[in-house]
């Protein structure tokens, strides 16, 4: 159903306002980010035991199916519809029906010699291209959570949870941070309440920074993973059985695909092929390399060996940490941020044994911890506004506040959803878990061994 808009609502955004280069880059970036989810399937699948690798990979592919459908129907509308209409942005989410199905973004109107888009574009990129790019972020955020519940969660329940969670948690948080909501720099936001609003700049005097998803993706997924791990419970052999990765080359392949795709994730978030995009590329590489080396150093000192799984995990920790900060740091500070992330995450993965929660594939230790550090680290290292770069403490305060709000919001909402879904049954039976979730849930095995 087309929106009934007055003539002056048509954006002065004709073909001359589009950039073919920027559009081509964002389409490429969207494909790169979508490729990250199959990469995550290999990463998680390799870390799993042989009898659960297919289920682990299916949870990632299932996320692509469920979230893509929902995002086209109401996800983009809930997140960003007010950016294309005259509606006032909501504090927590936009109207899920105003751009339902996103076909409205395809409408044009001929005015003189120009073809104007009914609802404009996103910078120099058609809005429908931005829909595709943002869809891939929602997909991988849901898929990331699955690593915390490996080997014991019913596949059907996972798909249902993913659909509800992306609607009630991911879309609102993406709107709050990126859609002029509560955690943005807009007039009615926490940052503007704390440090005032600059009407000329149309932003808070000290706006929060989340360039590509430290809060929206990684803190969000990591906190949801922690809640699910606590509520669903431990695997039957947790603390007694040595859970070893069944295929370390899969882990390395997955890490490689994630690193490759992450350039779409971070660099694509600039929305243009320009100098800042180049800075983001360099910062992403620098932080990731530093985190990998730092993780290996921790392993070497602590365990006497630098492992392949450690290298792959360090890569992911560095990518997570630099994600919110990649557009705001110099390359030197990116190296520092990445190195600290590698150390923190390498140490944090042992917390599950200390506190007794079964985060199967260390989503909490990597994504929550590195995501928190990357978001808060901006307050120390951001160019001109960081505590160590001459900007005072205001940026640090804002970053801590948005991180805490994201943790609390995701934690409460995930727990509510988990209790709603609980009557349907979260876990396979103990017998099925011992047999192997691949056979019992999918009637398949990864390897036909004679």
UniProtKB/TrEMBL annotation:
Report the locations given in the UniProt record: Cell membrane; Membrane
One protein family per Pfam: Ammonium_transp
**Coiled coil segments of this chain:** none
Q: Which InterPro entries match?
A: Ammonium/urea_transptr, Ammonium_transpt, Ammonium_transpt_CS, NH4_transpt_AmtB-like_dom
Gene Ontology CC terms, in alphabetical order: plasma membrane
- What is the membrane topology here? Multi-pass membrane protein
Q: Where are the transmembrane segments?
A: 24-44, 56-74, 127-148, 155-173, 211-233, 245-265, 280-298, 305-325, 331-351, 363-381, 393-421
Give the keywords, sorted: Ammonia transport, Membrane, Transmembrane, Transmembrane helix, Transport
- SUPFAM superfamilies in the record: Ammonium transporter
Gene Ontology molecular function: ammonium channel activity
Q: The organism sits in which domain of life?
A: Bacteria
Q: Does the keyword Lipid metabolism apply?
A: no
Q: Which family does it belong to?
A: Belongs to the ammonia transporter channel (TC 1.A.11.2) family.
Quote the protein name from its UniProt record. Answer: Ammonium transporter
Protein's organism: Mycolicibacterium agri
């Amino acid at each position: 159903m087309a929106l009934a808009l007055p003539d002056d609502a048509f954006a002065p955004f004709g073909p001359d306002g589009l950039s073919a280069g920027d559009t081509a880059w964002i389409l490429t970036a969207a494909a790169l980010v979508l490729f990250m989810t199959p990469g995550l399937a290999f990463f998680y699948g390799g870390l799993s035991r042989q009898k659960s690798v297919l289920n682990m990979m299916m949870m990632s592919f299932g996320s692509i199916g469920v979230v893509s459908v929902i995002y086209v129907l109401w996800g983009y509308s809930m997140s960003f519809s007010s950016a294309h209409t005259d509606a006032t942005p909501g504090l927590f989410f936009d109207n899920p029906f105003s751009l339902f199905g996103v076909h409205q973004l395809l409408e044009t109107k001929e005015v003189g010699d120009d073809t104007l888009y009914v609802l404009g574009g996103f910078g120099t990129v058609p809005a429908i291209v931005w829909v595709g790019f943002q869809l891939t972020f929602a997909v991988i955020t849901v898929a990331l959570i699955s690593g915390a519940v490996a080997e014991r969660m019913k596949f059907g329940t996972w798909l249902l949870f993913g659909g509800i969670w992306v609607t009630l948690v991911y879309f609102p948080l993406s709107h709050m941070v990126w859609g002029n909501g509560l955690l943005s720099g807009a007039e009615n936001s926490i940052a503007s309440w704390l440090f005032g609003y600059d009407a000329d700049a149309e932003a808070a005097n000290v706006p929060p920074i989340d360039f590509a998803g430290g809060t929206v993706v990684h803190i969000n997924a990591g906190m949801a993973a922690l809640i699910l791990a606590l509520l669903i419970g431990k695997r039957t052999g947790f603390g007694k059985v040595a859970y070893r990765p069944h295929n370390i080359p899969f882990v390395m392949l997955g890490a490689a695909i994630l690193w490759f795709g992450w350039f779409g994730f971070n660099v694509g978030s600039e929305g243009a092929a320009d100098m800042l995009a180049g800075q983001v590329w360099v910062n992403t590489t620098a932080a990731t390399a530093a985190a990998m080396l730092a993780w290996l150093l921790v392993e070497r000192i602590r365990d006497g060996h630098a492992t392949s799984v450690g290298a792959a995990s360090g890569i992911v920790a560095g990518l997570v940490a630099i994600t919110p900060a990649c557009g705001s740091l110099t390359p030197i500070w990116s190296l520092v941020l990445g190195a600290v992330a590698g150390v923190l995450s390498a140490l944090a993965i042992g917390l599950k044994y200390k506190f007794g929660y079964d985060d199967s594939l260390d989503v909490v230790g990597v994504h929550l911890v590195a995501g928190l550090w990357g978001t808060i680290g901006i307050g120390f290292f951001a160019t001109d506004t960081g505590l160590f770069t001459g900007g005072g403490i205001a940026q640090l305060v804002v970053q801590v506040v948005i991180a805490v709000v994201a943790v609390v919001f995701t934690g409460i909402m995930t727990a509510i959803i988990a209790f709603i879904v609980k009557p349907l049954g979260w876990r396979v039976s103990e017998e099925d878990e011992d047999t192997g979730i691949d056979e019992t849930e999918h009637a398949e095995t990864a390897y036909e061994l004679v």
